[in-house]
Amino acid sequence: MRVGLLTGGGDVPGLNAAIRAVVKRGEGEFGHSIVGFRNGWRGVVDGLSVPLSRQHIRNVLPLGGTLLGTARFHPHSKDGGLDAVLSTLEAERIEALICIGGDGTLHAAQKVAEAGVRIVAIPKTIDNDVWGTDASIGFDTAVTIATEAIDRIHTTAESHDRVMIVEVMGRDAGWIATTSGIAGGAEIVLAPEAPFDIDRIVKFLKHRHRAHASFSIVVVAEGAVPAPGTAMHYETQRGQFGEVVAGAIGERLKAEIESRTGFDTRVTVLGHVQRGGTPTAQDRILGSRFGVAAIDAITSGQSNVMTALRGERVELVPLEEVAGKVKRVPDDLLAVARALA
Ligand code: F6P
After folding, report:
1. pLDDT surpasses 90 at 132
2. Residue 102 near residue 127, CB atoms below 8 Å
3. Does this complex have an ipTM over 0.90?
4. Same structural domain, 260 and 204
5. Looking at the structure, do residues 177 and 162 belong to the same domain, yes or no?
6. Where are the residues marked Important for substrate specificity as a site (predicted)?
7. What positions carry a catalytic annotation?
8. What's the total number of domains in the chain?
């Protein structure tokens, strides 16, 4: 069989582990030809294919990024985009396509599947907000990096008696903020799932600094918002791909906290550091499991499914159930972060 493979959307550590698994399992076990497309859906539209075999995946397991390149690009939102995808796949004689991506890439995959292409998707995003799977490739590494950053910020916060705001990624869901906030011992965690009230935050900080300690760590997801009807409320501006301006919420919080408490406050925006570098063992393992599962699904005749971690098992879920939905942080996890503040 000729199997296409692409990585789309923002890169994450662990993508190369998944690519390697697809090639090893697909070519080595079943004799499939794996055809890579450069830069996500853009490469399919532009016909940028590269053969992928054993020699291309040597030593890539510990490397961050994606050896195929990636891009934020939705073929269905460009005139003639879907037709271009179909004609490239036909010209390359692709019988099934593996799409590794987050929400945007999977949404595009669903459109391409509706046009008659056999698709198997693999979820990846540091935001961990792909619906239908307990975990996505890249999340574990991002949480590990954010937790280490919070640990480092802790010591300097304490030395200077400061409020330190750590802004992490997560535009629609606060998985990184909540889990790294718990792991790093943050005093306050702000996630998009629970719009905040700045009055309560200011009150809490004043009380803590009077009664318990002279420093505080606030971890905020970039997509966190003040609750309607509370001070500081505003409408978040979104870009073409749903992105928010990095640093915006961190700076707003700093200005508000500083002016209302008088506490010396600093902001650290972790940004793309969370997406770079060596994947953790967990992300290498997850990428490898999903890569093997995707090839096995294709070989056994499955289509239009996504590999998903459900408890200890990798299962297949229908793509149409996943595309367009956001997996938000559950209340009990948010409650743990609050309970430990
Ligand atoms: O989609 C994952 C993500 O890491 C978001 O958390 C963040 O808002 C966005 O990517 C940043 O995207 P870009 O790399 O295009 O600036």
Report:
1. yes
2. yes
3. yes
4. yes
5. yes
6. 104
7. 127
8. 2
CA atoms within 13 A on the CB side of 163: 28
Q: What is the CATH number of the domain that holds 175?
A: 3.40.50.460
pLDDT in tens, 139-174: 999 999 999 999 999 999 999 999 999 999 999 999
Gap between the Cα atoms of 195 and 223, Å rounded: 10
Across the range 276-282, mean pLDDT stands at 98
Return the residue matching tokens 């590999």. 307
Range of the domain at 70: 2-138+279-322
DSSP characters for 204-223? HHHHHHHHT-S-EEEEEETT
For the ranges 74-83, 111-120, 152-161, the lowest mean pLDDT is seen at 74-83
**Based on the domain organization, do 165 and 39 belong to the same domain?**
no
Dihedral sign from CA coordinates of 85, 86, 92, 96:
positive
DSSP state of 246: T
Distance 139 CA to ligand 1 centre (A): 12
Nearest in space to 146 (alpha carbons), one of 184, 187, 173: 184
- Does residue 246 sit in the same domain as residue 283? no
On whether residue 113 sits in a domain, the answer given is yes
Model pLDDT, residue 118: 98
Atom of ligand 1 nearest to the CA of 103: 1
Q: Which ligand 1 atom is nearest residue 176's CA?
A: 6
* Residue 230 and residue 308 in one domain: no
What's 70's domain CATH number?
A: 3.40.50.450
84: closest CA among 104, 106, 108, 55? 108
Give yes or no: residues 134 and 153 share one domain: no
Q: What mean pLDDT is reported for the chain?
A: 96
